[in-house]
Amino acid sequence: MTTSCSGPRPRVEKWEADFGRTFVIGSDPVKIKLREDIAKASRTGKKYFKDHWDVTGAELFHHVEELAAQYGWEFGGAIAGHLIGPFPHERIPEDKITLYSHPGNLRRCATRCQRPRTPWILEIHFVDRARQIGGFFEELLTVG
Fold this sequence. Notes:
21% strand
């Protein structure tokens, strides 16, 4: 089974690192394809975010869902990314939508001056439920 690390994340003072990669042990061509596809999808998702400065959280989510289908996988995440800051997952405990690239988030990810209002993380999580494998790629949208 292909897995990704979801344990404790590195921290520097109050800041948590939000960075994830999938590694394949062995030479299974399907798992290698999965690892390569999520890396390619991350680059494509970053380009989409850059080219569509007024994208909403929902639009970014659906774009990542479409990328999964284009590569022959199912999107396996409840979100496709989130704002970053001092522990944003806990900032508004009752709000599981507006800080995330979530299908219900109709807020734009950028300001009117075409700059991101705050840095965003992109999360690519592709799965093949029949084979019981999945891969994860998480990185700042403005890197690379």
